[in-house]
């Protein structure tokens, strides 16, 4: 009696209240005035889209420089995880192409992890031509009024038409663009994870990419040092007669052999393959643990171990009801928090420096010489010489 058949609705939920209304449309050319929180420089407000489980947000909050004000994702489990860790913020569950600006909070920094350009063969050739998400990410960023935006995704994304759409639309308001590629292994992580990053700013700031340390081999952490003493716990399986036997005996002269991909690693290993969303689909390009005392046994890494490899902050946790498969998928879709945190800190420092310089009076007058003289009546006069600005 209230809603027409086949009509779309917005379902708004907060403590003690549920509001159901017809879906609102949006202005594709929405633009908001940028502003920082409050009259003083406080924590930077971070909005994340898609938010995923909230790992990029967790790394920012863990730095002590940001606070979470909102996130959006189309996967319910991702939103559940986000809200479990950031209860003071808001979250939008749904298709970003239908998100109204009313549901987008004001923020100082946006973190974007756009969907990968992973299409069928014809889609890969099109490189995002038919995706159409770029304009939606642009309008979401502009709706927050953010001062800066961080974009993270696989390096191939930054060659796509979708990214060019997003970049071209934002450059009118964010003319200062910084781009790079970082492998988490190069910043000290055991798990390799190569990602492209872009930082776009409204104003020119003294932003620099994190300086990657050149760690000597003897100073790198081992698998054992990352996962701790609980390595014995888990689902140990025999190599013989399982999928692992086939992975270890792949034939052919190609790059998909186990020895080139760290398929089976030990506690003393110092590198594992990148953690992917389909980690549970056992494949040669993922890493699994070999039993240190019985080399005929192996097991996949647990979700808590994968989180440790991704340097997830200690306060972050998944809801208790969430199973291993969902946790693993959410982790595989996320970021290496050490890299994200390093970039977020550099951006915060640059924004703080810009704000502090704006607080200094435009003219700083320094008196070079001063002299007192008296006229015939005895009246004293002060003479100020040249002034420097």
Shape: globular
Largest sheet, spatial ordering of strands: 5-4-3-6-7-9-8
What number is the mean pLDDT? 84
User: Tell me about the biggest sheet?
Assistant: 7 strands, mixed
In terms of quaternary structure, the protein is single chain
The level of helicity is 25-40%
Count helical runs: 11
Describe the protein's architecture and organization.
- Helix 2 (76-85) links the parallel strand 4 and strand 5 (90-93).
- Helix 1 crosses helix 11 and helix 4 runs parallel beside helix 5 (161-170).
- Strands 5-4-3-6-7-9-8 form a 7-stranded mixed beta sheet, sandwiched between helices.
- The relative contact order is 0.13.
- It is built from 11 helices and 17 strands.
- It is globular.
- It has helices at residues 55-62, 76-85, 121-126, 134-144, 161-170, 223-227, 243-248, 258-261, 303-309, 324-332, 337-359, and strands at residues 9-14, 17-22, 44-49, 66-73, 90-93, 109-112, 148-153, 176-183, 194-201, 237-238, 264-265, 288-290, 297-299, 366-367, 370-374, 380-384, 387-388.
- The N and C termini lie far apart (72 Å).
- With 389 residues, the protein is of the alpha/beta class.
- Mean pLDDT is 84; it is low at 32-41, 119-123 and 365-369.
Short description:
The chain is an alpha/beta fold and 389 residues long. It is built from 11 helices and 17 strands.
């Amino acid at each position: 009696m209230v809603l027409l058949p086949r009509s779309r609705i917005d379902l708004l939920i907060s403590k003690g209240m549920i509001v159901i209304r017809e879906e609102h449309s949006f202005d594709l050319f929405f633009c908001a005035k940028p502003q920082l929180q409050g009259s003083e420089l406080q924590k930077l407000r971070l909005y994340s889209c898609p938010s995923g489980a909230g790992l990029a947000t967790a790394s920012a909050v863990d730095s002590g420089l940001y606070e979470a004000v909102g996130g959006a994702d189309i996967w319910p489990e991702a939103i559940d995880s986000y809200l479990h860790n950031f209860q003071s913020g808001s979250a939008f569950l749904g298709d970003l192409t239908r998100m109204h600006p009313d549901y987008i909070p004001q923020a100082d920094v946006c973190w974007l992890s756009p969907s990968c350009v992973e299409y069928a063969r014809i889609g890969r050739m099109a490189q995002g031509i038919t995706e159409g998400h770029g304009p939606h990410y642009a309008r979401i960023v502009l709706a927050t009024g953010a001062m800066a935006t961080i974009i993270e995704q696989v390096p191939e994304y930054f060659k796509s038409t979708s990214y060019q759409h997003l970049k071209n639309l934002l450059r009118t308001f964010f003319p200062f663009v910084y781009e790079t590629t970082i492998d988490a292994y190069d910043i000290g992580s055991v798990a390799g994870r190569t990602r492209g990053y872009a930082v776009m700013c409204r104003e020119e700031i003294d932003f620099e990419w994190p300086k990657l340390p050149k760690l000597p081999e003897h100073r790198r952490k081992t698998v054992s040092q990352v996962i701790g003493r609980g390595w014995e716990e888990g689902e140990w399986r025999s190599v013989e007669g399982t999928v692992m036997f086939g992975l270890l005996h792949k034939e052919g002269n190609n790059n998909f052999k186990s020895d080139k991909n760290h398929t089976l690693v030990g506690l003393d290993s110092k590198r594992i393959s990148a953690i992917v969303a389909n980690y549970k689909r056992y494949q040669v390009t993922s890493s699994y643990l070999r039993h240190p005392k019985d080399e005929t046994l192996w097991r996949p890494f647990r979700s808590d171990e994968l989180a440790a490899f991704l340097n997830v902050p200690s306060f972050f946790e998944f809801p208790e009801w969430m199973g291993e498969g969902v946790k693993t998928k959410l982790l595989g879709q996320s970021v290496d928090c050490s890299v994200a945190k390093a970039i977020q800190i550099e951006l915060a420092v640059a924004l703080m420096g810009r704000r502090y310089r704006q607080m200094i009076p435009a003219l700083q007058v320094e008196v070079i010489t001063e002299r007192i003289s008296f006229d015939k009546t005895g009246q004293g006069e002060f003479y100020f010489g040249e002034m420097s600005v």
